[in-house]
Amino acid sequence: MSDLFAGLAQRTPLGAQACVLHGFALPVAEELLAAIKAIAAAAPFRHLVTPGGHVMQVAMTNCGTFGWCSDRRGYRYERCDPASGQPWPPLPEAFLQLAREAAAEAGFAGYVPDACLVNRYAPGARLSLHQDRDEDDRVAPIVSVSLGLPATFLFGGHVRGDRTVRVPLAHGDVVVWGGVDRMRFHGVLPVPPGRDPRTGGARLNLTFRKVR
Ligand code: MD3
Ligand code: FE
Question: What is the pTM for the complete model shown?
Answer without folding.
Answer: 0.96
